[in-house]
Amino acid sequence: LVDEEFxxxxxxxxxxxxGILVLLENVxxxxxxLQRFLECKTEEFDFDMDGEKTPICYKEINxxxxxxxxxxxxxxxxxxxxxxxxxxxxxxxGPKNLIKKRLHKLLDYEVIEGKSKLSYEEQAVANxxxxxxxxLLNELPRFNGLAxxxxxxxxxxxxxxxxxxxxDMEQLFQSFAQQLPHSSCHPKEFLEWVENxxxxxxxxxxxLCQSVEETLNAPVVQPVSPSFQRRLKHLTDKHGSGKIFQVxxxxxxxxxxxxxxxxxxxxxxxxxxxxxxxxxxxxxxxGGKKGYxxxxxxxxxxxATEDPPPSPFLPVPGNMTxxxxxxxxxxxxxxxxxxxxxxxxxxxx
Length: 349
Prior knowledge:
Keywords: SH3 domain. InterPro entries: AH/BAR_dom_sf (IPR027267), Dynamin-Rho_GEF (IPR051492), SH3-like_dom_sf (IPR036028), SH3_domain (IPR001452). The chain is of the alpha+beta class. It has helices at residues 4-39, 53-91, 93-112, 120-177, 187-217, 226-239, and strands at residues 220-223, 244-247, 266-271, 281-285, 290-294, 298-300, 324-327, 341-346. The strands form two sheets. It has a five-stranded antiparallel sheet with strand order 5-4-3-2-6, with helices on one face. Strands 1-8-7 form a three-stranded mixed sheet, with no helix packed on it. Strand 4 and strand 5 form a beta hairpin.
């Protein structure tokens, strides 16, 4: 059965329900962000700027905001908006259940509606449907009107609360404004100063990030173990310095004749292809063990031929002049190996 009057009332009720739930969700999210802001006690940090007016004013302003103004604003929000919204949401349950019950009774009523004579049970079903339908037609418009009025009232209250908050913050800032630099500047000049200050801060931050990145990507100098020196000499004597490569990442064999190697191990290249001509697998000598290693995890071993500059902090013993250091840097040229290496450089990834 089509009842246009009831369908219009039910449709408006569903719109109100959706609006109330969305508004309540937004208010909860708003309060969550406000609480997170209040937890950031930036005024308690030591700026190492004792005696300067700007950080002192900032601490005073932020303390007043976090301890008095914003907590009072949050308390009023909960009392005047959040709590009434929760109560209004709970009030939706009754009409919603009654609308569902009417639908169930309507299905039963449609079966018997065309009959000329009804039994006692069928008459009871018809009376139940008509009673619920009449109740909803009389009461649902009043409920919808009051719910809509409450929503508009809470939205107006929300605006008033923000107006009061802005007034409190303006009064707070005016008490400190005369002590701050650029307080007498024209608004246009002040905005230009702020823009230039922000751009300068961004430039310094980019320089700092670049410096940190260069520091992190710099080779890490590590002492060379005696076993490393022995393997280097053995492979160099057997294959020549031009065939010496270093493992850049740990290698775990997955096929027959593959080797398991750790990062930094030295190997000598025997063949740059496997038996099937695959150039991605190289045959290497790992100082006694021979097998295949992915070429992507090998890099040519580079050993510097010049002495490093002396440290400005540590004295250099006289018997250290014969030592060298070497690093893992790709170089297509054939390099010469010194007889007494002291350091190796490993690039941390």
